[in-house]
Specification:
It contains 10 helices and no strands. By secondary structure, it is mostly helical. The longest helix has 18 residues. It starts with a helix and ends in an 8-residue tail after the last helix.
Length: 191
Protein backbone atom coordinates (compact mmCIF):
# COMPACT_ATOMS: atom_id res chain seq x y z
CA UNK A 1 0.00 0.00 0.00
CA UNK A 2 2.81 2.41 0.87
CA UNK A 3 4.33 2.23 -2.60
CA UNK A 4 0.97 3.00 -4.19
CA UNK A 5 0.40 5.97 -1.88
CA UNK A 6 3.85 7.34 -2.69
CA UNK A 7 3.14 7.01 -6.41
CA UNK A 8 -0.21 8.75 -5.97
CA UNK A 9 1.34 11.76 -4.20
CA UNK A 10 4.16 12.01 -6.76
CA UNK A 11 7.00 10.43 -4.81
CA UNK A 12 9.06 7.72 -6.51
CA UNK A 13 8.93 4.75 -4.10
CA UNK A 14 12.33 3.64 -5.39
CA UNK A 15 13.77 6.99 -4.34
CA UNK A 16 13.09 6.50 -0.63
CA UNK A 17 14.27 3.96 1.91
CA UNK A 18 11.31 1.94 3.15
CA UNK A 19 11.91 0.09 6.40
CA UNK A 20 9.78 -2.48 8.16
CA UNK A 21 9.24 -1.55 11.77
CA UNK A 22 7.74 -3.56 14.61
CA UNK A 23 5.38 -2.14 17.17
CA UNK A 24 2.68 -0.85 14.84
CA UNK A 25 1.50 2.69 14.24
CA UNK A 26 2.19 3.87 17.79
CA UNK A 27 5.86 2.87 17.46
CA UNK A 28 6.02 4.63 14.08
CA UNK A 29 4.52 7.74 15.65
CA UNK A 30 7.07 7.70 18.46
CA UNK A 31 9.92 7.24 15.96
CA UNK A 32 8.61 10.18 13.92
CA UNK A 33 8.30 12.38 17.01
CA UNK A 34 11.88 11.44 17.96
CA UNK A 35 13.15 12.31 14.48
CA UNK A 36 14.14 8.71 13.71
CA UNK A 37 11.62 8.24 10.92
CA UNK A 38 10.65 10.81 8.29
CA UNK A 39 7.25 9.40 7.31
CA UNK A 40 4.99 6.50 8.09
CA UNK A 41 1.52 5.07 7.68
CA UNK A 42 -0.45 6.05 10.76
CA UNK A 43 -3.69 5.35 12.56
CA UNK A 44 -6.28 8.10 13.03
CA UNK A 45 -5.47 8.34 16.75
CA UNK A 46 -1.92 9.47 15.91
CA UNK A 47 -2.79 12.36 13.60
CA UNK A 48 -3.28 14.96 16.35
CA UNK A 49 0.01 14.31 18.20
CA UNK A 50 1.93 14.35 14.92
CA UNK A 51 0.34 17.54 13.61
CA UNK A 52 0.73 19.23 17.01
CA UNK A 53 4.45 18.44 16.78
CA UNK A 54 4.63 20.11 13.35
CA UNK A 55 3.99 17.10 11.17
CA UNK A 56 2.05 17.31 7.93
CA UNK A 57 -0.46 14.75 6.73
CA UNK A 58 0.45 13.98 3.11
CA UNK A 59 -2.33 11.53 2.37
CA UNK A 60 -5.52 10.83 4.29
CA UNK A 61 -7.56 8.32 2.33
CA UNK A 62 -8.41 4.90 3.67
CA UNK A 63 -7.11 2.11 1.49
CA UNK A 64 -8.81 -1.22 1.28
CA UNK A 65 -6.58 -3.55 3.18
CA UNK A 66 -7.08 -6.84 4.96
CA UNK A 67 -8.04 -5.95 8.54
CA UNK A 68 -8.97 -9.23 10.17
CA UNK A 69 -7.09 -12.49 9.95
CA UNK A 70 -7.87 -15.28 12.39
CA UNK A 71 -5.62 -18.30 12.36
CA UNK A 72 -6.23 -21.69 13.89
CA UNK A 73 -4.92 -25.09 12.94
CA UNK A 74 -7.13 -27.24 10.74
CA UNK A 75 -7.32 -29.78 13.58
CA UNK A 76 -8.52 -27.12 16.04
CA UNK A 77 -11.04 -25.80 13.52
CA UNK A 78 -12.42 -29.28 12.82
CA UNK A 79 -12.69 -30.05 16.54
CA UNK A 80 -13.98 -26.65 17.71
CA UNK A 81 -15.75 -25.22 14.67
CA UNK A 82 -18.72 -24.01 16.73
CA UNK A 83 -16.43 -22.01 19.03
CA UNK A 84 -14.49 -20.53 16.12
CA UNK A 85 -17.69 -19.52 14.37
CA UNK A 86 -19.12 -18.02 17.57
CA UNK A 87 -15.94 -15.97 18.01
CA UNK A 88 -16.03 -14.68 14.44
CA UNK A 89 -19.73 -13.82 14.71
CA UNK A 90 -19.16 -12.00 18.01
CA UNK A 91 -16.37 -9.95 16.38
CA UNK A 92 -18.62 -8.88 13.50
CA UNK A 93 -21.52 -8.17 15.86
CA UNK A 94 -19.26 -6.00 18.04
CA UNK A 95 -18.18 -3.94 15.03
CA UNK A 96 -21.76 -3.47 13.94
CA UNK A 97 -22.73 -2.45 17.50
CA UNK A 98 -19.84 0.03 17.69
CA UNK A 99 -21.07 1.74 14.51
CA UNK A 100 -24.73 2.13 15.51
CA UNK A 101 -26.54 5.47 15.44
CA UNK A 102 -26.96 8.26 12.92
CA UNK A 103 -23.60 9.73 13.97
CA UNK A 104 -22.11 6.24 14.59
CA UNK A 105 -21.49 7.14 18.23
CA UNK A 106 -24.66 5.74 19.86
CA UNK A 107 -22.63 3.18 21.82
CA UNK A 108 -19.43 5.18 22.37
CA UNK A 109 -20.06 5.88 26.06
CA UNK A 110 -21.02 2.28 26.78
CA UNK A 111 -17.94 1.05 24.94
CA UNK A 112 -15.82 3.43 26.99
CA UNK A 113 -17.24 2.02 30.22
CA UNK A 114 -16.59 -1.54 29.05
CA UNK A 115 -12.92 -0.93 28.23
CA UNK A 116 -12.35 1.02 31.44
CA UNK A 117 -13.45 -2.11 33.33
CA UNK A 118 -10.41 -3.79 31.77
CA UNK A 119 -8.03 -0.97 32.77
CA UNK A 120 -7.93 0.42 29.24
CA UNK A 121 -8.08 4.19 29.18
CA UNK A 122 -8.48 5.47 25.60
CA UNK A 123 -6.82 8.79 24.82
CA UNK A 124 -8.79 11.83 23.74
CA UNK A 125 -7.35 11.30 20.26
CA UNK A 126 -8.67 7.75 20.15
CA UNK A 127 -12.12 8.90 21.23
CA UNK A 128 -12.12 11.82 18.79
CA UNK A 129 -11.18 9.41 16.00
CA UNK A 130 -13.91 6.87 16.81
CA UNK A 131 -15.88 7.24 13.57
CA UNK A 132 -12.79 7.74 11.40
CA UNK A 133 -11.25 4.59 12.87
CA UNK A 134 -14.42 2.59 12.25
CA UNK A 135 -14.96 3.87 8.72
CA UNK A 136 -11.38 3.84 7.51
CA UNK A 137 -9.51 1.26 9.47
CA UNK A 138 -11.88 -1.47 10.54
CA UNK A 139 -13.67 -3.93 8.30
CA UNK A 140 -17.18 -3.49 9.61
CA UNK A 141 -18.31 -6.86 8.26
CA UNK A 142 -15.09 -8.76 8.97
CA UNK A 143 -14.51 -9.30 5.27
CA UNK A 144 -12.35 -7.97 2.48
CA UNK A 145 -12.44 -8.16 -1.29
CA UNK A 146 -10.62 -10.89 -3.15
CA UNK A 147 -8.45 -8.16 -4.70
CA UNK A 148 -7.43 -6.94 -1.23
CA UNK A 149 -6.58 -10.48 -0.13
CA UNK A 150 -4.51 -11.04 -3.27
CA UNK A 151 -2.74 -7.71 -2.69
CA UNK A 152 -2.05 -8.61 0.94
CA UNK A 153 -0.39 -11.83 -0.18
CA UNK A 154 1.60 -9.99 -2.86
CA UNK A 155 2.82 -7.40 -0.34
CA UNK A 156 3.87 -10.09 2.16
CA UNK A 157 5.79 -11.89 -0.57
CA UNK A 158 7.48 -8.65 -1.62
CA UNK A 159 8.95 -8.17 1.86
CA UNK A 160 9.93 -11.83 2.25
CA UNK A 161 7.33 -12.82 4.85
CA UNK A 162 5.72 -15.35 2.51
CA UNK A 163 7.43 -17.67 0.06
CA UNK A 164 6.74 -17.13 -3.64
CA UNK A 165 4.89 -20.44 -3.89
CA UNK A 166 2.45 -19.60 -1.05
CA UNK A 167 -1.18 -19.24 -2.12
CA UNK A 168 -3.53 -17.93 0.56
CA UNK A 169 -6.51 -19.61 -1.13
CA UNK A 170 -5.06 -23.00 -0.19
CA UNK A 171 -5.32 -22.11 3.51
CA UNK A 172 -8.44 -19.97 3.84
CA UNK A 173 -11.85 -21.01 5.08
CA UNK A 174 -14.46 -18.24 5.16
CA UNK A 175 -17.38 -20.45 6.19
CA UNK A 176 -17.65 -19.02 9.72
CA UNK A 177 -17.40 -15.46 8.44
CA UNK A 178 -20.00 -16.05 5.75
CA UNK A 179 -22.34 -17.67 8.27
CA UNK A 180 -21.97 -14.64 10.55
CA UNK A 181 -22.47 -12.19 7.70
CA UNK A 182 -25.56 -14.04 6.48
CA UNK A 183 -27.06 -14.24 9.98
CA UNK A 184 -26.52 -10.48 10.42
CA UNK A 185 -27.97 -9.58 7.02
CA UNK A 186 -24.63 -8.42 5.62
CA UNK A 187 -23.22 -9.03 2.15
CA UNK A 188 -20.90 -12.02 1.95
CA UNK A 189 -17.29 -10.85 1.70
CA UNK A 190 -15.00 -11.95 0.30
CA UNK A 191 -17.31 -12.50 -2.60
Amino acid sequence: ILREILDEIGVDPNGVQIVAMGGGADARMQAMLAGQLDAGIQQPRNIVPLTEAGGVILYNQPAEAVQDVYVVTREFFNTHRDAVCAFVKAEVMAKQWAYEGDDHQANLNEALEIVKNYAIDPTENELAGWVHELEGNISMDGGASMAALDKFEEDLKAVGILSEDFNWKDHADFSCLWEAQEALGLPLRPE
